[in-house]
């Protein structure tokens, strides 16, 4: 079975990852920036949005049992 997944705006995961590892930096997506324009269409509808990366947002880890 083959996959026909097309990269979004020519973003290639392997190239992006290689660049981040090589330059010791975290990935920042120029197509989906961590700012209000990615969340709100025209104006803020609620308070301050605080952008966090996975693993950083929770002070204590909680696992949920499925079922």
Report the uncertain regions.
none
Helix content: 10-25%
% residues in beta strands: under 5%
N-end to C-end Cα span: 31 Å
Number of domains: 1
Give the radius of gyration. 17 Å
Written as H for each helix and E for each strand, in order along the chain, the element string is H
Q: How is the main sheet built?
A: none
DSSP, total strands: 0
Shape designation: extended
Find the structural class using helix and strand composition: mainly alpha
What's the total helix number?
Answer: 1
Q: Give the overall average pLDDT.
A: 78
Short overview:
One of its GO terms (biological process) is proteolysis. This protein is mainly alpha-helical and 67 residues long.
Describe this structure in words.
The protein is an all-alpha fold and 67 residues long. The protein has one domain. The protein has one helix and no strands. The longest helix is centred in the first third of the chain and has 11 residues, at 13-23. The radius of gyration is 17 Å and the shape is extended. The relative contact order is 0.09.
């Amino acid at each position: 079975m083959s996959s026909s997944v097309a990269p979004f705006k020519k973003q290639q995961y392997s190239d992006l990852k290689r660049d981040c590892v090589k330059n010791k930096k975290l990935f920042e997506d120029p197509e989906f920036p961590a700012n209000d324009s990615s969340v709100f269409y025209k104006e803020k509808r609620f308070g301050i949005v605080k952008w966090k990366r996975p693993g950083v947002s929770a002070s204590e880890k909680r696992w949920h049992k499925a079922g």
